[in-house]
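Weekly structure sync, notes
Attendees: PL (lead), two postdocs, one rotation student
Agenda item 3: pending single-chain targets
PL asked that the sequence for the first pending target be pasted directly into the notes so everyone works from the same version. It is reproduced below exactly as submitted, 372 residues in total.
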Amino acid sequence: MIKAADNPYDRIPSLAGRNAILSIPMPQEDANLISRLFTIHIVILLVSTLSNNVETFPVWDCDLEHNAWLNLCNSDIKINSNFYATTDKVEIGKSGNCNITEVTLDALKVWWKQSEAKDLSGNKNKYSGAIKNFGRMATGEVKGFACTYSNCNKNTPNTLMCVYDKKLQPDDLLYTTVTDENDVCAPADCKCEKRLCQYEYTGAEKANPRPLCAQDGMTFDMQTMATNMHNYYRRVLATGWGEDSNGYAPRAKQLPALEYNCKDIGKKTLALIDCTKVDSLHTITATPGYTLNYHKESYKVSREETLEKAITSWWEQVKGVDINDKAEYTAEVRDKAKFFAPMVLEGATQIGCAVKDCRSTGYTVAACQYNT
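Predicted structure, written out during the meeting:
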C-alpha cells in the first residue's frame, strides 16, 4: 500500500500528478521544471501528427515519460525491452539557445526530416536505420509515447529523450497508405480527430516504476496521485483551512491519513465502471461497506488529468455548503457536497480508485471508493 509519508517517488516530476502538484505548495524549481515539460508535451504532439498518412493519434503516456525521466540520470532504472527509447539523445542548450520550446521543436524537425533520406512511396514505407527517428514518430503501430529532458549535473547539458510503446523491426511497414483523402479516417469505427484515428489506449503497464498491483488498472503515478491529493486535502481540513460557504470548516481532530488499497478496493472500483452506462453514472451503487465518488470528462482528457479533475471537483464542493460546528452530514451536505463528504470521513483509512477510457462513448470516467 502507498502510505502518506513513505512514497519514495513523492517529488519526482510526472505528468500524471503534475496538475495536482501545481495546486499544492512545492519547491519553485520543481514547478519551473514541470511547466517546461508540459510545454514540450504540447510541441511534440503537434509535430508528431504532421502526416496525413499516420494511422493513429499517439497518446501521451505519463508512465513512459516518468520512466524516461528516471532513466536519463539513473541507468539502473531500465526502459522495458518492449519499448523503444530514441538512441539519438538531443542535447538542449549546448548551442546557447535557452528557449526550450524552440530547441525541442528544432530537434523534432530534424528527426522528422529523416524521411527525405529514403523513398517511402507505395510499399516502400518500411522501417530502417536510415529513418529510425522518423519511423518511430510516424508509424501507426505506436499508440503511446512520451518525451522528457533532464541534465543530471551541472557539468552535462540537458538531454531530450522520447520513448515509444512499440519497438519496430527492420522492414516493418510504417503505416497503411491511401490514395483518396476521404479514406484517411477509414474504417467506420475510427473516431477521427484531425485526420487521425482515436483509439482507446491502455497505459504501458511495463513502464517503471511499476504500479502496486494491476487489479485497479491504475499506474503507479495515478495511485500515488490519488493518495497524495486526498491526504493533502484532509490535512487542509485538519488545520482549519478548508473554506466553506461561511468562512472555514471546523478543524478535524485525529483525521487519519489514507492508504492506497488496489488489490481489494481498487479492483472493485474498476469493476463498477461500465462504459456502456456512462450517461447514467448516478445509478452506480457503491460496493457494500464502501462509499463511492465518481466523475467524467471528455474522452479527449487523459486518464491522469481526469483523476486530478475528479478529486479537485469533489473537494471544491465544500465551498458551497456551511459545515456546522459538529461537522455533521446535514441535508445541505447531502444535496450539495455529496462527493466531498466521503473524502473527509474520519472512519476512512483506505482508498482505491480506477479510471477508464470510454472513448467509444466519448468520455473518460474516474471513480474512488473509501472503506467506510
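Discussion points:
- The two ends are 17 Å apart (CA to CA).
- Residues 270 and 345 are 22 Å apart (CA to CA).
Action: rotation student to compare against the earlier draft before next sync.
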